[in-house]
Structures are given as structure tokens and as C-alpha cells.
């Protein structure tokens, strides 16, 4: 523990970095064509882009999902803990490693909603609609959060200074604390995640994600789309449903 405690800081964004990938549209084609053509080289697969586009669309449309699993992407994500609690509901095709409050002193970086974050909720479960908050509601929200964060982190530092174990002292910290993790997935598992954690007009199945996890999903989708543009286009074309 440092002699001078770090002052709390507050942020309303999240960050997603693609740190490693082995993912391309050709991986999908290569995996799919083994069913009819046997073993083949990736070079042969890449020779006919239009044929590849057609096959990927066929696989997506008819829900032939396993060819989309033969690839890998690892993202480094910084977001509030409550986002990760939702994230970890996605288990099939995912691997996670999150920073540990048992082994390191947690830094005082906390989430407060940005000014464009809708604050007012109407309706019932499954039918929620969100509306803009007033400037006064935003001030109330950020003020209450920042005061609670400062108090909880002061008590955390107090326990650490008294020699209390980090794994015990962390219990006082709120889910608005920022954490970080590596998340590894394949394109099929990512598409399932995106179908649930983004809201789009062209989605075949409506979804109502919490905005903060949608912010993560949007950044992941943008980076995946650059790696696998044909697969992403087919995902969009066929209603954003994972095959």
C-alpha cells in the first residue's frame, strides 16, 4: 500500500482493446468446406471471394454454426464491475481472466453516467423504455455516486492501513468500481453476445441491454467487423442472430 492514497477518479466510458486475434473469413470457409472437399489449404479458399461470400451467407442463413468457431479473439476490457457480472452470464465459447482484489490493491476509478446516458425508466420488465434525465437528475445521480464512492474507498484504505487483508477489505467497495479483464471468444460466441447485448432495428429478435454493457459490445463488434467483414455482413443481413 502506498503512503499517499490515490484520489478517486470518475469516468463515464469503457475501453475495449483487441490484443490478439486469429480470425478471418477464410477460417469459416476452410472449416465449412472440409465437409465436402476434405482437407484443403487456406490459399485455395481465398481464391474466390464471391463464392466465399455466398457460402458464408448460406451458413449464416441456415444456422450452420460450427464453422464460425474455428477462430479466436482476445479483448482487454476496462469497465465497471456490474458490467462484468452481466458479461459472465455468457459462458459457452468464452474464457475470462479478471483482475483480482485478493492479490492487488484496487485503484479508485469509478463509474458515473455521462451526460448522454438516459436516466429515467418507464414501463415494466420486458417493456422498459428509457428517457433523458433532467440536468438536475444528472447532478443528483453523479453527486450521490461520487459521495458514496469516496466514502467506500476511504473505508477500504482505512482497513488496509490497519493491516486487514485485501480480500476482506474489498467487500466495502461498490459494483461501480472499474475492473479489467481478458475475454477470449470465437465469432459464433461473439455473435450470440452481440445479439443479446446490442439493440438494433434490424435485429430479428428484440433485445434490451443495459447501456453500459452495450457500450462494450459496440466496441467489440467494431473491431470484429474489421477482422471478418464477410461474416459480419452476413450477421447483419440475417437479423443479427447467431448461427
TrEMBL record:
Active site: 197 (involved in ionization of n3 of dump, leading to its activation)
Reaction catalysis annotation: dUMP + (6R)-5,10-methylene-5,6,7,8-tetrahydrofolate + NADPH + H(+) = dTMP + (6S)-5,6,7,8-tetrahydrofolate + NADP(+)
CDD domains linked to this entry: ThyX
Free-text cofactor note: Binds 4 FAD per tetramer. Each FAD binding site is formed by three monomers.
Cited function: Catalyzes the reductive methylation of 2'-deoxyuridine-5'-monophosphate (dUMP) to 2'-deoxythymidine-5'-monophosphate (dTMP) while utilizing 5,10-methylenetetrahydrofolate (mTHF) as the methyl donor, and NADPH and FADH(2) as the reductant.
Classification via NCBIfam families: thyX
Name this polypeptide is given: Flavin-dependent thymidylate synthase
Biological source species: Streptomyces rubellomurinus (strain ATCC 31215)
Amino acid at each position: 500500500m502506498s503512503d499517499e492514497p490515490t484520489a478517486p477518479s470518475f469516468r463515464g466510458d469503457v475501453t475495449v482493446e483487441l490484443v490478439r486475434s486469429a480470425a478471418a473469413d477464410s477460417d469459416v470457409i476452410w472449416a465449412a468446406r472440409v465437409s465436402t472437399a476434405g482437407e484443403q489449404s487456406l490459399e485455395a479458399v481465398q481464391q474466390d471471394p464471391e463464392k466465399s461470400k455466398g457460402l458464408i451467407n448460406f451458413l449464416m442463413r441456415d444456422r450452420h454454426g460450427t464453422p464460425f468457431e474455428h477462430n479466436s479473439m482476445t479483448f482487454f476490457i476496462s469497465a465497471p464491475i456490474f458490467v462484468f457480472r452481466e458479461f459472465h452470464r455468457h459462458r459457452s465459447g468464452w474464457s475470462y481472466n479478471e483482475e483480482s482484489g485478493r492479490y492487488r490493491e484496487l485503484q479508485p476509478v469509478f463509474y458515473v453516467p455521462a451526460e448522454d446516458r438516459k436516466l429515467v425508466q418507464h414501463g415494466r420488465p420486458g417493456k422498459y423504455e428509457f428517457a433523458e434525465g433532467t440536468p438536475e437528475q444528472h447532478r443528483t445521480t453523479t453527486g450521490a455516486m461520487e459521495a458514496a464512492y469516496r466514502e467506500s474507498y476511504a473505508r477500504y484504505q482505512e482497513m488496509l492501513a490497519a493491516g486487514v487483508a485485501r480480500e476482506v477489505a474489498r467487500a466495502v467497495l461498490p459494483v461501480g468500481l472499474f475492473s479489467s479483464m481478458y475475454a477470449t471468444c470465437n465469432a459464433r460466441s461473439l455473435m450470440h453476445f452481440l445479439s443479446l447485448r446490442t439493440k438494433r432495428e434490424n435485429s430479428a429478435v428484440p433485445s434490451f441491454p443495459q447501456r453500459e454493457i452495450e457500450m462494450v459490445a459496440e466496441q467489440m463488434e467494431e473491431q470484429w467487423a474489421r477482422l471478418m467483414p464477410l461474416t459480419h455482413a452476413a450477421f447483419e443481413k440475417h437479423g443479427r442472430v447467431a448461427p
